[in-house]
């Protein structure tokens, strides 16, 4: 049995994502914030944490990136991808909706719907979509933008379902564990994720990206977050296709490591199953063959 912490309370999208990682024996534990879910793993109160990392409309989830970049390192072992559309919940006694609360990512994804359907309502940020439902129950706000499952936990009136300004919106979630972890086996459709603290000088980011480009490695995400210490200095969150167990990826990781501080955030199967693009001159067998040739040269066996 494992204890899986997730960004809660019960009824968030993250809870739905966490369920995709668990069996009936596992215990799900709600945390009020993303750092709290990750810290539960760091201090051993949970075996893993499920957190949102990226949305197809709004991009990165800053709280997740910032909490993964500092503190005890955690390693991603799996990801989940959920379609994201929203329900609008209110109380029976509400006659006029003046405030609508939700997680900022949810509010951003229903802006147009709110402008058309509740033009007088003020949008208010809440800790999570489910925290907004709790606040509506408590009478703090008139309506909440929630995950479809929220109504099963919070007996509110459903004003609308299937709300989404962008119909095919999706959010990606990570399952993070504390090292040492069992790194999942490569599948051919993997993602590797890391944080690089590029030094602050001309071309530093271009050099990092060139290490990946020259090995034919396809990026799937690049985000920058301030390092919060020196104004203008950033950490780069780089995701790319491939797995650390592959020679071509291992070679790239070593090259990045030589250039700057790197924190490995995991290699795991892509939830969408998209196979890695492989450069015809940078296949794994090319790296293996080249390394074998160098070793033979070093032994004086070949030229
Ligand atoms: O607040 C939630 O339900 C979350 O899990 C975060 C979130 C918010 C909006 C879209 C996807 C995930």
UniProtKB/TrEMBL annotation:
Coiled coil: none annotated. One of its GO terms (molecular function) is prephenate dehydratase activity. SUPFAM superfamilies: ACT-like, Periplasmic binding protein-like II. It is an enzyme of class 4 (lyase). Keywords: Amino-acid biosynthesis, Aromatic amino acid biosynthesis, Lyase, Phenylalanine biosynthesis. Residues 193-270 form the ACT domain. Its EC number is 4.2.1.51. PROSITE patterns: ACT, PREPHENATE_DEHYDR_1, PREPHENATE_DEHYDR_3. It catalyses: prephenate + H(+) = 3-phenylpyruvate + CO2 + H2O. Pathway: Amino-acid biosynthesis; L-phenylalanine biosynthesis; phenylpyruvate from prephenate: step 1/1. Residues 3-178 form the Prephenate dehydratase domain. This is Prephenate dehydratase. It comes from Amycolatopsis viridis. The lineage of its organism: Bacteria, Bacillati, Actinomycetota, Actinomycetes, Pseudonocardiales.
């Amino acid at each position: 049995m494992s204890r899986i912490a997730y960004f809660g309370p019960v009824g968030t999208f993250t809870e739905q994502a966490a369920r995709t990682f668990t069996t009936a024996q596992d215990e799900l534990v709600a945390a009020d914030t993303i750092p709290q879910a990750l810290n539960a793993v760091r201090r051993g109160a949970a075996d893993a944490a499920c957190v949102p990392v990226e949305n197809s409309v709004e991009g990165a989830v800053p709280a997740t990136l910032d909490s993964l970049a500092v503190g005890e390192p955690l390693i991603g072992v799996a990801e989940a991808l959920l379609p994201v559309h929203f329900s609008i919940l209110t109380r029976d006694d509400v006659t006029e909706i003046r405030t609508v609360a939700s997680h900022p990512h949810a509010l951003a994804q229903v802006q147009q719907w709110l402008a058309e359907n509740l033009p007088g309502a003020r949008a208010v940020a809440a800790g999570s979509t489910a925290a907004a439902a709790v606040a509506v129950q408590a009478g703090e706000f008139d309506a909440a933008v929630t995950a479809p499952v929220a109504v099963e936990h919070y007996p509110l009136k459903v004003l609308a379902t299937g709300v989404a300004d962008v119909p095919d919106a999706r959010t990606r979630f990570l399952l993070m564990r504390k090292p040492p972890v069992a790194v999942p086996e490569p599948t051919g459709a993997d993602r590797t994720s890391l944080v690089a603290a590029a030094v602050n000088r001309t071309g530093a980011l271009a050099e990092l990206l060139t290490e990946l480009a020259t090995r034919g490695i396809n990026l799937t995400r690049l985000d920058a977050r301030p390092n919060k210490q020196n104004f203008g200095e950033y950490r780069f969150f780089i995701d790319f296709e491939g797995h650390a167990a592959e020679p071509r990826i291992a070679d790239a990781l070593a090259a990045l490591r030589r250039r700057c501080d790197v924190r490995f955030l995991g290699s795991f199967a892509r939830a969408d199953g998209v196979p890695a693009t492989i450069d015809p001159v940078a296949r794994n067998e090319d790296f293996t063959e080249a390394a074998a040739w160098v070793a033979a040269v070093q032994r004086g066996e070949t030229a």
